[in-house]
Structures are given as structure tokens and as C-alpha cells.
Amino acid sequence: MKKFVITFIMMTLVVGLVPLMLPITAEAQKMYARRVVGRNGRVRYVRTRKPSFYRRHRNRVNMAVGTGAGALIGGLIGGRKGALIGGAAGLGGSALYTYKLRPKKKKYVRIKRY
Predict the structure, then answer these.
(1) Alpha helices (H) in the chain, listed in sequence order
(2) Domain limits of the chain?
(3) How far is residue 74's CA from residue 87's CA, in Å, rounded to a whole number?
């Protein structure tokens, strides 16, 4: 009976995650429109490449990786309580890295004048 329950749960997860992994269209995921206002007040939409997943979610990814690594190391050293302390330390270290040591650099795009 245990085998059937575990198999059912695994198949449900696989069936639920497959639609999320399939792209709708390749073009729709790579491009998006950005609004540009010219000197004369005209508005036009310029198609640009979509930033990568890491670029869009850089802060969250860094915090998650730091917390997970800290919890893993703390769990190996001190058990459940060590995992909690290591996770907090990893979160603090990754926050320091993300926001103070390596802050995001703003990328300014130069607009062509016609």
C-alpha cells in the first residue's frame, strides 16, 4: 500500500510540473516591449530582450542560496538547532554580499536620436 501512495504522489508532482516547464513560445519569452518617449513627445514601443532569470531575481536567488548553504553546514555540524543558526548566519552573510558588497549596477540605455 505504501508503494502505491508514494507512486501516486510522485506521478501527481510530475503531471503538475510538466506544464510549467514547457514554454508557450520561444519568442514570447525572450522579447518584451519597452515604452520610449522621444523629444517631440511621441511614444513608441521598442522590442528588447528580456533579462535573464538571475538578473531579474538576483536578490532572491542570492538570499536563498546563502540561507540554504548556511542551514546545510549548520545542520551537519549541530543538528536541528545548528541548522537554524546556520540558516540565520547564511541569510545575514548573503544579505551583506547582495546589498553592500556587490550592489546592483543600473544599466542606462542610450536612445538613438533621429
Answers:
(1) 2-21, 26-30, 53-56, 58-96
(2) 21-101
(3) 7
Nearby residues of 36 by Cβ (< 8 Å), 6 or more positions away: 43, 44, 45, 46, 111
Q: Could you report the average pLDDT of every consecutive run of 10 residues in the chain (114 residues)? A: 75 61 54 73 77 84 92 91 93 90 70 60
- Is there a contact between 88 and 112 (Cβ–Cβ < 8 Å)? no
Cross-strand partners of 47: 33
> Dihedral (C-alpha) 9, 57, 67, 72: value to the nearest 10 degrees?
50
Give the distance from CA 66 to its chain's centroid: 13
pTM score, two decimals?
A: 0.53
Given a contact cutoff of 8 angstroms between Cβ atoms, the answer to whether 66 and 97 are in contact is yes
Residue 72, SS3 per DSSP: helix
